[in-house]
Amino acid sequence: MKNWKDKVLGILAGIGIMSLLMASNSQEPKVNYGVPESFVWEFHTDEPLAINRVTGEVRKYNTSQVEYNKLKN
What predicted TM-score, i.e. pTM, was given to this entire model? Predict the structure, then answer.
């Protein structure tokens, strides 16, 4: 009877060790797929720049060469 108990405990211990190893090996995704990239960038119109709320990256845009189409009345 002792041999049967040792086998069961050994199997359960093996399953426990495997589950711990598998849980520690899982990798979290580095990109949040639930939030579109357009929601991350914050645009300011007084000075043409955009700020990334996640990384803190700032992009300044040159608007001197932009032509705006005016509607004719």
Answer: 0.37
